[in-house]
Amino acid sequence: MKIKISLSVDGEQVKExxxxxxxxxxxxxxxxxxxxxxxxxxxxxxxxxxxxxxxxAEPE
Length: 60
What we know:
By secondary structure, this protein is of the alpha+beta class. The protein has helices at about 25, 30-50, and strands at about 1-10, 10-20.
């Protein structure tokens, strides 16, 4: 199964990627389990690719 990921920030696409899960790993799973597996793969992708940094712009 191929999974296409599109990351947008403020409505603008900034990154596209494609991941693949071996179909044999999904064969015996229910539809809900497949959905959960795909979500887990996408979340791991996001954890590796995304970071957010912030700081106080004007000290009080």
